[in-house]
Amino acid sequence: MRIIALAGGVGGAKLAHGLAQILSPQELTVIVNTGDDFEHYGLYICPDLDTVCYTLAGLANPETGWGRVNETWNAIKSAAALGGIDWFNLGDKDLGTHLERTRRLKAGDSLSQITSDFCKAWGVQHAVLPMSDQPVRTIVATDEGELAFQEYFVHRRCAPKVTGFRFEGADEAKPAARAQEALQSADAIVICPSNPWVSIDPIRNVISIPAGKPVVAVSPIIGGEAIKGPAAKMYRELGIEPSALAIANHYHGTITHFVIDRLDAPLLESINALNMQTLATNTFMANHMDRKRTASEVLHFIGASV
Amino acid sequence: MRIIALAGGVGGAKLAHGLAQILSPQELTVIVNTGDDFEHYGLYICPDLDTVCYTLAGLANPETGWGRVNETWNAIKSAAALGGIDWFNLGDKDLGTHLERTRRLKAGDSLSQITSDFCKAWGVQHAVLPMSDQPVRTIVATDEGELAFQEYFVHRRCAPKVTGFRFEGADEAKPAARAQEALQSADAIVICPSNPWVSIDPIRNVISIPAGKPVVAVSPIIGGEAIKGPAAKMYRELGIEPSALAIANHYHGTITHFVIDRLDAPLLESINALNMQTLATNTFMANHMDRKRTASEVLHFIGASV
User: Fold this and answer.
1) A42 at the B interface (CB within 8 A)?
2) Residue B199 belongs to a domain
């Protein structure tokens, strides 16, 4: 049984971690959004890729879900004392990742190869792949004009009202070589509970999900609110009521299976009408056991023999 | 009384600190070697400039003389764990300086302006100037070929045998604007006890020391050995017996006054024969009081009314 998981940052990383506790390295490949990558202080930063890798490696900060555990913040504090930009959190250990990645990219290595080598060094056994080795940049259209993703997300704390999204470079970007192979040979695809607009859509704009295989999504919205991040706010600003049903509509035509939280069971009938099988269960992942349990239910739901 | 001090790293920073304890910000300007600047992990690093600024700011590591006090090393350890280069010590706080300097250089600011702003932020009241805003690179010719300075100095720990030096870019580099003004209006010039070959000669290759003013050098060699660094080894490898006399010969024609350690008093007669006034005193600076006392003796020796 070969499973591909598509993931953004925090929520995606949690389910990917649950899947990695059940599936062997041969059985699971995680393809990660790179649309929120950006350059900061001349360094090439991949927030979602690092969150997934740190989480699988057990190096993630359990408080935040992103960044490193037992982190110090001396470099960014020292730069800020000199008038430097401090709106993006850069821990010292995390900075080491960005320094070495930037050095290797400049030396001509691909992001896939670098990520693979970093995973080896961190003891991550499952394959984690960037969606592409070419730059794709999520641009958020807002009532204050277009904003680069991190500008919108971190600097402006998602305050501007969203009117749309585009993925700069997506037309020219090729799927990372191993990502396309993995998708072809996959038995099923899991869309993790990440933000559909800015975590999963960038991936879907670069990689085409093959037809004829089970594709299961886990709703990132529970009871009308996103567990983390601006997904619900985005739906509202785009004139759509945020709900598990809105997510089902978002992925309609792509997914065959959909997992919602028990809280959203009243929506089961409307979602089933969209021609997908639906499972209502406890999808909130507060701890490591929740991650494994949710992953296990998702796999059983699509009939994965694990 | 306006004094210009020419300085490299550790030894130069000590005397500059002593001078700064006596002279007002109007009376002292420190011009610093930038020949050992280099790019590492894409960051623009100025080891001597930072050592002088950190020392004057009271932020220097008292154990090493370079780098920051109360430093952490998480970024470089994290990069090294990923296969990164770790032969150059990059503390986290220090890294913040390099990140912000690199960011501002890329934004088009000059090294002089950046250094001036950093000094303000660090509470350094005396002017500290890079010798030039254009890159000058000290290249060490050795029996193993030419080596970039930090490659020779830090990576190879000065092991290769030196056959000469050149200062790439020195012909095209202009003195930093305020450095040239300061030299013109100076009443006297102090050459700090820095390495003549690789700390002071780069400065002299970019900035011409005006004639007709007292120019005093403090010997970085005591009893035939350098207090720190490879100066004595360099003299030996170039076929010159390392001594205060060798330093006097090095600066012959440039300096009017020379300060040597009491230990080297037997050389007084030979040095006086070089047509310079010589003072033998205690020049070893083990603590802050030593720095101030040495600076005071140097100033009185050249007749500075302070």
Assistant:
1) yes
2) yes
pLDDT score, position B66: 84
- Edge to edge, the sheet with strand B257-261 lists B127-130, B28-32, B3-7, B188-191, B215-218, B257-261, B277-281
Q: Is A109 on the interface with B (CB under 8 A)?
A: no
Question: A69 at the B interface (CB within 8 A)?
Answer: no
- Tell me how far apart the alpha carbons of residues B33 and B138 are, in angstroms, rounded to a whole number: 10
Q: Is A71 on the interface with B (CB under 8 A)?
A: yes
Cβ atoms B52, B128 nearer than 8 A: yes
Which chain B residue has its CA at the smallest distance from A99's CA? Answer: B41
* ipTM for this model: 0.91
Residue pointed to by tokens 């300075």: B149
Which residues constitute the domain of residue B100?
Answer: 3-136+171-301
Q: What is the pLDDT of residues B168-195, one digit of tens each?
A: 999 999 999 899 889 999 999 999 999 9
Backbone φ and ψ of A284, nearest 5°: -75, 120
The mean pLDDT of B126-138, rounded to a whole number, is 98
| A290 contacts A271 by C-beta, under 8 angstroms | no
Residues B180 and B213 in one domain: yes
Q: Is residue A247 part of a domain?
A: yes
Cβ–Cβ gap B78/A85 under 8 Å: no
CB contact under 8 A, B75 and A102: no
The CATH number for B252's domain is: 3.40.50.10680
Residues of A in contact with B57 (CB under 8 A): none
Please tell me which of the candidates B95, B102, B106 has its beta carbon nearest to residue A95. B95
- The predicted-structure confidence for A140-178, as pLDDT tens digits, reads as follows 999 999 999 999 999 999 999 999 999 999 999 999 989
In a domain, A306, yes or no: no
* β-bridge mates for residue A40, sequence order: A43
Can you read off the two tokens belonging to residue A41?
Answer: 């202080």
Give the number of A-B residue pairs with CB atoms closer than 8 Å.
Answer: 120
Residues A126 and A16 in one domain: yes
The closest of A194, A191, A247 to A3, measured between CA atoms, is: A191
- Which residues on B lie below 8 Å from A68 (Cβ)? 78
Asked if B263 reaches chain A (Cβ–Cβ under 8 Å), the answer is no
Q: Answer yes or no: is B306 within a domain.
A: no
Per the CB < 8 Å rule, is A41 touching B95? no
- Angle formed by the axes of helices A92-106 and B92-106, to 10°? 50
DSSP state, B100?
H
The answer to whether the Cβ–Cβ distance between B95 and A92 falls below 8 Å is: yes
- A107 to chain B, any CB pair closer than 8 A? The answer is no
